Amino acid sequence: MTSAERPAVTPAEQPAGFVLRRLGGTEAAHRADRLAAVYGQAQGSRAEPLAHFAENVRTCVREYAGATVLAALSGGTDGEIVGFLHGCDLQLQHWWPQQIEGALRAKGRETWLQDAFELIELDVLPQVQGRGIGTALLTRQLADMPHRRVVLSAEPEGRARELYRRLGFVDLVPDFAYDGTDYRAALMGWDRQR
Predict the structure, then answer these.
(1) Among 61, 79, 63, 66, which Cα is nearest to 15's?
(2) Residue 171 has pLDDT above 80, yes or no
(3) Which residue range or ranges hold the N-acetyltransferase domain (predicted)?
(4) pTM of the shown model
(5) How many domains does the chain have?
(6) What is the pLDDT of residues 128-146, one digit of tens each?
(7) Range(s) of the domain holding residue 27
(8) pLDDT (tens digit, 9 = 90+) per residue, 82-135?
(9) Is 1 part of a structural domain of the chain?
(10) Which residues have C-beta within 8 Å of that of residue 173, sequence separation ≥ 6?
(11) Residue 79 within a domain
(12) What backbone phi and psi angles, to 5 degrees, belong to 188?
C-alpha cells in the first residue's frame, strides 16, 4: 500500500461515549489488574494467566523505555477501562524482539527493528467491540508516537488483522512460529514513511 492509498494518520476522535487517556506509569501499574481483566475477556481461551499479564504490564511501565498505556474509559476520564493499547520502544535485548529478529532478517526486513514501537497489546472488551474504540486507540498512538515504525504480532486470521491492514499495516512474516512452539502468528508492521 502506498502513502497515497493509505489513510492519513491523524488523532482519532473520541469514540462516542468513551474517553481516550494515557495512563502514567504509576497509574498503569496500579490498574494493571483491570488491564489484565480486559485482556482476558478480549482474548478468551488464548489469554495467558491474568496475574502474569498484569505483572508484565507493571514491569514494562516501570522499567522499559518508551512504555505507554493508552486507555479507553467509559464514564469520563476516571471511568472504567474498557479497552487499551500497551507497548514500548522496540529494544533488541527483550524477549519478543529476540524472537522475531531472525525471521525479519531472513526476509530482508531488519530495518523494521529500527526506530520502532513494539505494540505489545491492543484489546477491547467484547461487549463494546465494533464501536471504533480499537481504531481510535491505534490511530491516536500512530499520530502521537515519535517512532517511525510499529511492529506487532497478531493472530493469523481475525478482526485484528483487518483493523491493522485498514490502517496501513503490512505483513512482514505472515506465518511466524515462536521458538520451540507450534504457536503461529503474523508479524505486521506500519511505517510512517510508506
Answers:
(1) 79
(2) yes
(3) 18-193
(4) 0.90
(5) 1
(6) 999 999 999 999 999 999 9
(7) 18-191
(8) 999 999 999 999 999 999 999 999 999 999 999 999 999 999 999 999 999 999
(9) no
(10) 100, 103, 104, 107, 109, 186, 187
(11) yes
(12) -130, 160
For 21-27, the CB contacts below 8 A with 24+ separation are 21/70, 21/71, 21/73, 21/77, 22/68, 22/69, 22/70, 22/71, 23/69, 23/70, 23/71, 25/61, 25/62, 25/67
150's grid cell: 510499529
pLDDT of residue 12: 54
Alpha helices in 44-150 (DSSP H): 50-63, 95-106, 133-144
Share of the chain above pLDDT 70, in %: 93
Judge whether 2 lies within some domain: no
Cell triple for 29: 501499574
Q: What is the rounded CA–CA span in Å between residue 193 and residue 26? A: 33
Q: Tell me if 11 is assigned to some domain.
A: no
Cβ count near 22 (within 10 Å): 14
Q: What is the CA radius of gyration of the chain?
A: 16
CATH (domain of 141): 3.40.630.30
- Angle, in degrees to the nearest 10, between helices 32-43 and 50-63: 130
pLDDT band at 66 (very low <50, low <70, confident <90, very high): very high
